[in-house]
Amino acid sequence: MIKKYLHALFFCLILANLLKPVSHGQAQPNPQTTTEQAASASQPSTVETLTLDRALSLAADRNRQITVASKRLAEAKAEITLAKTRINPSLVTDLGFFAELTYRVSGIQQTFEPPGKRRFRILVAEDKYKQVEAEVQDTIHNVLKEVHRAYADWTAARVQARFQEKNSQELKTIAEVAKKRYGEGQVEELDVNQSMLLYLQADNEIIQARNEFERTQLVLGRLLNLQNFKTPVITSFDELANKQLPSLDSLIEQALNHRKDLQAKQAELKAEGDRLKLFKRSRIPNITLTAGYDIVNPQANRFISGIFTMGQMEIPIFDRQQGHIERTLATQARLQEEQEALIRQIRSEIEISYRQVTYNQTQWRRFQTQLLPLADIVDRQALESYQTGKTGINDVIGQHQNAFNVRQEALSRFIAYHQSLAELEAAINKRLKELDLGY
């Protein structure tokens, strides 16, 4: 039993050390802070070490889609400024000449809004800002979700390339043993050719694996707006895979608190409620008052002067805002249904992702404690048996292939675990380690 666990530990150490970690660099500056920083951020950069946290941080600072989406906040803020404006007074003047009759009037005109109308107009603009803010955060969330997946694919491709290199080295060892035994007259030349054929095929698979690694690196680089980064850093396999997940109910609760698309929907629903109040306030018309001083010259040598006042009001009977109110009520009903549907969708996403993480984690643990140690033993015994002449080339190649398939499936399980974990964190819109749930 101890020997099996030692083999499992040895395999995990190999995986954890496939990638040589180096010191972490400092986070890149936000490209929106100053003109110089923006110019600097637009230039290609090099990052030697890239952890998942580092990748997510760089994406938040450098991703072009996030930068463009953030510009919407300035537009929404300007709408608040416009909503706060008051109606300014106007200067009224009139000068007329009719034969010997002269008429001149000067005064001030001011329009007054009904009480509360400006306040609700500001509330609508502020609600719109909160909605845009939540939508921008949702855009950031979607980009970071892509980054998480791209990083998982990148690290998986890196480990896959190393696995292929290890497999090629093991097949090379078998080919060298076959060549040695052929030189000693113990086996036919077929053993040498067969083992060399598999070795060359493994070399071709290395090329394919490296090409996939470069492809995934380009995808991740596009999301991060970076070039020439390398060396992904993978957290200890044992450390992640053996952690106990928080309860499903607690994760659903966290998702309902952190999902930005839900917050955007709630802000949009509140904006429609305030807009409805604004339309109802608009039933009361604005009142315009004018006051000033006029001079009338009915005769050539006589002037008559005085102060005048005037009031003006629209008749609201022709505009009761019924169309706007009905449309707002219909929009409110639709948004309420969409919000309830989104909550059901979030619950479903969390439950599906949670079950996938649990399944993949259980599968990885099984490979870790049972299948991988046994595969290493079989692989080693098959090579020793062939070296001593107890078995033929087909036996050692077959057993090696079986052991390699087990290792490959173990890697697939761990990759699936990482990818399902990324889906779960994306569904929550928060890293599990940031939730203070003991993970």
Q: Which features does this protein show?
A:
439 residues, alpha+beta, Outer membrane efflux proteins (OEP), four-stranded antiparallel sheet, 68% helix
Q: Could you explain the architecture of this structure?
A:
It is a single chain. This protein is of the alpha+beta class and 439 residues long. It has a single domain, classed as Outer membrane efflux proteins (OEP) (Up-down Bundle). The protein contains eleven helices and four strands. It has helices spanning 2-16, 35-41, 52-62, 64-84, 117-183, 189-224, 237-241, 248-258, 260-281, 322-387, 393-428, and strands at residues 90-98, 101-112, 287-299, 302-313. It has a four-stranded antiparallel beta sheet, with no helix packed on it. The two termini are 29 Å apart. The relative contact order is 0.13.
Counted beta strands: 4
User: How are the strands ordered across the major sheet?
Assistant: 1-2-3-4
What CATH architecture label applies? Up-down Bundle
> What class, by secondary structure content?
alpha+beta
At the fourth level of CATH, the homologous superfamily is: Outer membrane efflux proteins (OEP)
Radius of gyration: 37 Å
| Helix-strand topology string | HHHHEEHHHHHEEHH
**CATH topology call:** Outer membrane efflux proteins (OEP)
Q: Tell me the span between the first and last alpha carbons.
A: 29 Å
How confident overall, as mean pLDDT?
A: 79
CATH class: Mainly Alpha
The total domain count is 1
Shape: elongated
Largest sheet: 4 strands, antiparallel
The portion of residues forming beta strands comes to 5-15%
User: Helicity level, as a percent range?
Assistant: 55-70%
Number of alpha- plus pi-helical segments:
11
